Amino acid sequence: MTLLVIFTFVVRNLRWLARVPGAPQLFDAALLLSTALLHRGRLRAISSIEKVAQRLPGVTLGIHRFGGIGFFLGGKELSHIHGNGLLDCFVGRANRDRLVRLGCATVHHVFPRSGWISFFVEETGDVEHALELIQIACAYREHAE
Asked: What is the C-alpha separation between 8 and 14, in angstroms, rounded?
């Protein structure tokens, strides 16, 4: 959980770093390296999520602007996963409220009143649930179009 504490501290207290070109990607690379060294099961889970998500119809992978891997549908971001295993998905406010109420996710770690949710992937047992959240984001994006 130390990586999540560090991540949260940086995101909440050092936001200005996001405006420094390359800093978010460098920070996320450090998170990913820490995950690779200290939490190999989490790294396998992140890799599995990336592999399966890119096989979803119309989903492509790319670099997330604040570090991590972004999942895109029709050129629009629907989810992203950071190097520490934090998955963020855009599901709309109604879905966000329902998923948070059911304990399936938390409000977004930076924008709690938005339509984004967060879910912390800790091990390979979390892959299926993470993919379900990504599919909810896909369905929301498809419906919103």
From this structure: 10
